[in-house]
Amino acid sequence: MSHNPHAAVHEEESVHHEATPDAKSFVTFFVLAGLALLALFVGFSDLGSTKVVASLAVSTVQACVLAYFFMDLRSADKLTWLVAAASIFWTFLMFLFILTDFLTRHLGVL
Amino acid sequence: MADILLEPARLDYTPQMLPEPEVSFEKHPEHKHYLNHEYGLLSWLLTVDHKRIGLMYLVSVSIFFMFGGIAAGLVRTNLITPTGAILELDQYNKAFTAHGTIMLFLFLIPVIPGVLGNFLVPMMIGAKDMAFPKLNLASYYVWAAGALFFVWQLIVGGLDTGWTLYPPYSSKYSHTSVMYAGLGIFITGFSSILTALNIIATVHKMRCPGMTWGRLPLFVWAMYATSVIQLLGTPVIAVTVVMLAVERMVGVGIFDPNLGGDPILFQHMFWFYSHPAVYIMILPGMGVINEVLTCFARKNIFGYKAVAWSSVGIAVVGFLVWGHHMFLAGQGYYLAMVFALLTMLVAVPSAIKVFNWTATLYGGSITFQAPMLFALGFIILFTIGGVTGLFLGTLGTDIHLHDTYFVIAHFHYTMVGGMMFAWQAGLHFWWPKMTGKMYSDFWSRLAAIVMLVGFALTFLPQFAVGYLGMPRRYPNYPPEFQIYNVLSTAAAYVQGIGYLMPIFYLGYSLFAGKAAGNNPFKATGLEWQTSSPPSPHNFETTPQVYFGPYEYAVADGLKIIPLNDGKIHDIVHEDPDLVGTTPKEATHGS
Amino acid sequence: MAASTVEGPVAHHFNNMGQQLATVRFGMWLFLVTEVLFFGGVFCAYTAYRIWYPKDFEAGSAALNVGIASVNTFLLLASSLTITLAIRAAYVGNQGGLMRNLLLTIVLGSAFLGLKAREYYLDYEEGLMPGTAKVMQKQKVEQNGKEVEIEVAVPKFDIALEEVLKREHFKGEAHKDYDPSRVMLFFMFYYSMTGLHVLHMIIGIGLLTWQLILARSGFFAHKSRYVYIEVMSLYWHFVDMVWMFLLPLLYLCGPHTSSQAIEQFKMAIGLSHGGH
Description:
By secondary structure, chain A is an all-alpha fold.
């Protein structure tokens, strides 16, 4: 088989993909459990209109910790980050346009 | 210097070739290709060979196309008289819905990705197969199952909501198989996601040495952009159809005004996919046109980068314009203005492609075989279709034209005049590669002309009658519109005959056609470097790519074609051992 | 540990192990994109209506069993841990550890589903099912200046909702500052979103079971095949991520207290029978 320049690239990719040692996984779990408790705390509190913002902020942090550590984005290549970012961005576009309709529809005729 | 082949630059020559095709049947009659290396039903049903899977899609998609065509025939025949010639009112609703859904979901969306995408993408990038061959086979079965289930539901229960499935009619009042038909659509959609996933992974990870993104055939760029759209858009219609099915099952739902729900939300979520869906349909066709035009004009594509990036541009901006289907639906005015502006913007990348194609033709050495006839027809008809879209994208004129036959003529010009003929161009261009047989030049050119003329005359009157106010989806119309409808129907029959013709001459070629040879059209591209039909694993050794994809005519200088000696040769000119002198010296050298 | 030392068979269409591993991982990430958009669609619809009907969505959320949801959150987090431990086990070739962790993930996931099933059953018992079913109720109305008792068709759901909100001491119940039909809309989202999540969990547990069977048959003796546990974990973590957003949007949207949560969980596992 002839020397394949692509082989080097793909070999390198996998070198950095060592499976996370158990100790680190446990730490991540406890961080996430702590955040879950925080989410419940926020949820059971009486923050009024800011409660939803705080709740979603906690969820976002939880999701980022989960993605970065458990889903191993930490050692992933740029392409994987691009794919993950694209999914968030496209969802954001969908939210942006549709919610604009729902927020502005009853504002009256131009 | 004996093992270096030197070719002077001139038109009509084939660069970027392995010095000898890897396998030719003249030299190796015992060579087994992908069709005959294994026999038996199971070898086909359980194949993971992307080429066989492509053929399986070809057969299935063609059958469903016939069903959709029959439905179209019913619709057009019914419209001969102002009060409906052959169908009852509810039958007419079922007929146009069947035509729309079958043609869109079971033909236009899967045809080029399933047939040509599967067959060609691995070969064009120098790979042995797709990234996930077993997933590819599973994709086919999921699609076939969903498609069969869907058609069965159309037959036993019918579907009369229009292909757009708008609630509350579809959720509450229709007595047809909305839920099960929706399930069929869901299943076929899932298959298209898996195919898209496969293509994206293949293009990213399986390119052969030297095949950089800038050397990819534009068909691959187009398939990549299409796959990105499929990946991002299809899940949204999947969840929308699920919500609609739930509403139908439970009796109340999230689009139900009685609960405070909003039918326009359905339209938003539906069109979030369905507008990009039309780009899923047209982008692969545009990809084919790049290949066909360059080959039959014997010229490099003009503006490779512009065409490549315009595919990406269409994919991205295409996600931001869906509200132009809803200008009269009741969405907010501010949002409508944003959508109208973005709709104007999305026309730009398509226009860039058309300009580049025209520039490609200029100064080329053009011949008019069937693939080229279809490609030229594509450029003209797609442009007409695209330009008429601008009237629909403008808020003011859309008030008059929305839901009239003008819309129908517009999208048929782009989807049939565009995509369908691009498919025919691709089918005719790569038929010799896929089957190893050559079809009749005369009959294929005649069929192309019949199809093109028949199509154009079918829908031209529809622009007029739409502008005059005839609404779409109505079986009855004022008597003064009858002349337009009769003209349209008559041309539709001609068009139908045109679609039937390839069955005969292509079918005939399978049994009695001439052997096509490895590269009957003298095209560039790695797929033409293999035998026709190709070996099961495409390439005997991993190809090494040195030039861009359309090196048909080189302005000056020498083209060196080194042997595949296992070494990497980067830029040929820089290696003194390989650089020759002038063409005269070179050919009169050793 | 360099990839070239990760031993295992390379499929015929790949050039080397590195390419195979990278491609398999990439494929799963691509699939997760579709899942993000899939759930994103229904989340977007939910958000649209929450903007229009904030009070009614709060009322709906108040009627949900947040006790079960809280416990389920931790079960799911634990299962995310165990599947990550399974990847490590496969990577180093520890077959016993791999099978143990896969089994634990399946058990934790099944416990989640078991509690969810109980939650749905309680909802059914309480009558919180969206639908068009109606009952006849006697209501006093004014007619021609006199108070008359007539029979009115009232949706079953409305009555059930009222009872549950009274039980949960929902403040808005007294002034009826919610519209029951809008709350039914909320419940459509509750069932659809949690239902889709449950469906994904069932599929995930099925796949995990298959991987467990494969592990028993020695499939993962080739260390390179740890990548299949890794892509399974990507899917499983994604399902966990969806839950992280479902919890605040559906369950924590309305007013709850931690004592309510405890009481509701007791009710769920049969230690109490509601009404406090």
